[in-house]
Design a protein that fits this description.
The complex is a heterodimer of chains A (276) and B (113). Chain A is mostly helical. Chain A has one domain. Helix content of chain A is 77%, strand content 0%. The termini of chain A are far apart. By secondary structure, chain B is α+β, with helices and mostly antiparallel strands. Chain B has a single domain, classed as Immunoglobulin-like (Sandwich), CATH 2.60.40. Chain B has one helix and nine strands, in the order H-E-E-E-E-E-E-E-E-E. In chain B, strands 3-9-8-5-6 form a five-stranded mixed β-sheet, with no helix packed on it. A four-stranded mixed β-sheet of chain B has the order 2-1-4-7, with no helix packed on it. In chain B, strand 8 and strand 9 form a beta hairpin. The longest helix of chain B has 19 residues. The N and C termini of chain B lie far apart (47 Å). Classes of the chains: A mainly alpha (276), B alpha+beta (113). Chains A and B meet through helix 2, helix 4 and helix 6 of A and helix 1, strand 6 and strand 7 of B.
Amino acid sequence: MFATAVILFREVLEASLIIAIVLGASRGIHQRGRWVLAGVGTGLLGASLVALLASTASEYFSGDSQALLNAFILLMAVSMLTWHNVWMATHARELRAELTAVGTDVQEGSRPLTALMVITALAVMREGSEAVLFVWAIAAGGGQAVEMSMGAAAGVATGVLAGVLLYLGLLRIPVRHFFSVTSWMILFLAAGLSAQAAGFLNQAGLLPSLGNSIWNTSQWLDQSSALGQLLHIFVGYIATPSGIQVLFYLGTLALILVLMYRGRIKNLFFGYLSAS
Amino acid sequence: MLNRFASLILWAVLFGAALAAQAETTQTITIHDKQFDPRETSIPSDTKVKLIIKNQDSFPVEFESRELSREVIVPAHGEISVFVGPLENGRYPFFNDFNHNMTGTIVAAPEKK
């Protein structure tokens, strides 16, 4: 029962923490709760579909299509997180104003809501399909059904609780710093997901690994330890990353930063030109 | 400009090398009675190898290895393929993420000639 709880906790934790971060980052945007809920619903539907495909040994799911699906989901999430951060870079001031004053609606408030929904749906879908398959696997294994389902429920509840705690923790950050903190969190979250996507594309044989493990920090921080797993979710920590993963990580980091600060970079550049 | 040209060439070389490495070796691992068979699979080091994993059991398995950074679901009565390597000499454990009692190892060693 305990083993079941731990495995489900791990599967739920990642989705739950991601949702907590985007909920924090979208604070002050009108109606975001409804969109996140829609995302959870869509995600659960998608997860069941993937689990169904996997359990029926469908040809669509064998070979490399699975790695490709994972890579696609991850890259999609990365692009949505990027969109959100870029939008926030120009609208954070208005949102901050709304959080301090009362009753001023943010202009263009509806734009990143689709992003919010898609990110939530993708996170739930990816982790949820594995959770569904796992529960199904133990159910098919027979025996101890009651204990197992109790363990499963406990695992899911603890995972969700962790997300709630993170969200409440985020809310304690002073409004002045709030959106820069969430932006940085989303930045590293996106880079980490992008590195995972690179791993799947390499797994499918589409990208060279450019070196199997560029470094190995398993001795210092085992990726399967509690801290290792948390860092894996938040900043994409991988104990033995391949070259292509490092490349994707840094590339995503650079791309998002440039997009976020493109106005400032342009000013700097033209300022430099006109001065010389 | 020169820099960009140099990096372009570097990429082309890397990509070419990746394609050349695809002349492939295949190795099969079967899952039956809640175990991997064989428990220990030898593959040549410094070679890209295609692993075929066949699941004869009636429940899905998530083949996972942190050392190989591979993670793939093998459907019940299904079959998947996954590339590993080129690997350095050594032992690379893997397990079923849905049932941690199911474990196995891939051993990469120089090819005998």
